[in-house]
UniProtKB/TrEMBL annotation:
The keyword Coiled coil applies. GO terms for biological process: bacterial-type flagellum assembly. This is Flagellar hook-associated protein 1. It comes from Lachnospira eligens. It is found in: Bacterial flagellum; Secreted.
Length: 523
């Protein structure tokens, strides 16, 4: 049976509920500029009724606040994180492709196309005065300028690869740090929830960390109710567990023993789990900044550049060389264990292919000839730098003997030919139009490299803009559910204030009743 002061108790519960709702509203307004904050609401319900032992049965016991709930939709969270993964991937590609574009920008820079044209311009001049030492020097100097440019370009591309490699290590460290923080928050949240406490702010911190993680790598997140107000949160990458409740796994970077591609920088990182289990960095489902960095660092259009080999009559495999004994390179398909993106290794391989074809065509003609005075046989114009194993864009240089003595340059085919005979030089000039570069000319081949780069760079820019716009749109949709709205909170504040005032008024009325009952009843 209800006590005499039951009415006062009911009014007091209303006062408490209104006060709690006002406090929650105040907390929402305090976090109105906090993008990771989730709006909270006080969940209220009627108190359990009491038996009154009267005809009307039971009496309501007022109101209680049974929980402080977050207003959040997991659908928008998943949608946001999937898009954030794509944004992270293309934002990285945009950054690095812009650097590659700066090095290969043939439209605003005097790049390799200009150096290539200058070489043949010098040949045209030599065709006019084949015995002139100054004309020979001009050709050799232009050749040296061309090789220096390709050396520098190869070095710059390698530096881009090294930068991407270092950022891969940093990204792996960030993933490990976020995994540790999320697992720690899982434990703290469950400790509070086990005592039926409010861990909403910790959940917001965890969600913000998961958002940050989704930018780095594509993740799958699942949260399962395990009873007693506890949950089990799981995060996986490529089907492998990263966070398992209170536990987490870490990734490790391990330097490669041998370069994957001929022109790769030394010591590039592979990734594995701390248990030694392999981590498939070329998985199509990887995503995020990590995927973008790996595509830039290792992307060779689904191929790997290696030393070219040939099989002799005895079935023995040996390195394939040009006429001067320079080891050549080749690409082999590795679609199943590589990325199809055109990253640094692709452009290095393309430059190497051009240099090998160009050097072979020029040297082949020169070594068939003799000097202008007929005193010596022709020697190669282009050679490998000392200590190099293969002829590549980074190792090609001009024969030092020709730099020291330009008259050693072959200008005719036979000793009996006069100095004015320019058939050898004409063949050198005509090699420019020879379709020996994958069925096209050297000029076309160089232009195709720029075209590939421009297409990929433009794609990276456009996709970054698109995913950034989507990120803004989805975030606005998410905030429409979880965000704090000024007008809505202002209306709630007025509503809860009125409820508080009415409960206060009810206590005043009850106080007057009890005052009449206690102080003014009886003798």
């Amino acid at each position: 049976m209800a006590s005499t002061f039951f009415g006062l108790t009911i009014a007091y519960t209303g006062l408490q509920a209104a006060q709690t709702s006002i406090n929650v509203t105040s907390h929402n307004l305090a976090n109105i500029n906090n993008q990771s904050y989730t709006k909270e609401t006080a969940s209220i319900k009627a108190g359990e009724a009491l038996r009154s032992y009267a005809k009307y049965g039971t009496l309501g016991a007022g109101v209680i606040v049974d929980a402080i709930n977050q207003t959040r939709d997991s659908y928008y969270d998943e949608k946001y994180r999937n898009n954030y993964t794509n944004y992270g991937q293309y934002n990285v590609k945009d950054t690095y492709m812009s650097q590659i574009q700066n090095y290969l920008n043939e439209f605003t820079l005097k790049g390799y196309s200009t150096e290539y044209e200058n070489f043949f311009a010098a040949l045209n001049q030599l065709d006019l005065t084949p015995a002139d030492t100054s004309a020979k020097n001009q050709l050799i100097n232009n050749a040296k300028s061309m090789t220096d440019y390709f050396n520098t370009l190869a070095t710059n591309l390698r530096n881009v690869q090294i930068d991407a490699n270092n950022e891969i290590k940093d990204t792996v460290n960030q993933i490990n740090s976020l995994a540790q923080s999320i697992s720690s928050l899982n434990k703290q949240i469950n400790q509070i929830q086990a005592n039926y406490g409010n861990a909403n702010d910790l959940k917001d911190q965890r969600n913000a960390l998961i958002d940050d993680l989704s930018k780095l790598v594509n993740i799958s997140v699942s949260e399962t109710d395990i009873g007693n107000n506890l949950t089990d949160l799981q995060i996986t990458i490529n089907g492998n567990s990263l966070v398992n409740g209170y536990n987490y796994h870490t990734l490790q970077t391990v330097s490669r023993d041998e370069p994957r591609n001929i022109s790769d920088a030394a010591g590039l990182y592979d990734i594995q789990w701390e248990t030694g289990q392999p981590f498939n960095i070329y998985s199509t489902s990887l995503g995020g900044e990590l995927k973008g960095l790996i595509d830039i660092r290792d992307g060779c259009n689904g191929e790997i550049e290696k030393y070219a080999t040939t099989t002799d009559d005895d079935g023995n495999e040996t390195y394939k060389t040009d006429a001067e004994g320079n080891i050549l390179t080749d690409t082999v398909s590795k679609v199943d264990s590589n990325t199809n993106y055109k990253g640094v290794p692709y452009y290095q391989a393309q430059l190497n292919q051009f240099i090998q074809t160009f050097v072979s065509s020029i040297n082949e003609i020169l070594t068939k000839g003799v000097t202008s005075d007929g005193s010596a046989s022709g020697i190669p114009l282009f050679v490998m730098s000392d200590g190099s194993k293969a002829l590549t864009a980074s190792s090609v240089t001009v024969n030092q003997d020709l730099i020291d003595n330009a008259d050693l340059l072959a200008t005719k085919y036979k000793e009996s030919d006069g100095e004015a005979n320019t058939s050898l030089i004409v063949d050198l000039i005509n090699s420019k139009d020879a379709k020996i570069y994958d069925g096209g000319t050297g000029t076309y081949f160089l232009e195709s490299i720029v075209s590939d780069m421009s297409i990929d760079a433009s794609k990276a820019i456009n996709f970054t803009k698109n995913y950034n716009n989507l990120k803004t749109t989805i975030q606005n949709q998410r905030l429409s559910v979880m965000g704090v709205d000024t007008d809505e909170e202002a209306m709630d504040l007025v509503k809860f204030q009125q409820a508080y005032n009415l409960s206060s008024k009810m206590m005043t009325v009850m106080n007057q009743l009890y005052d009449r009952l206690i102080n003014n009843t009886g003798v």
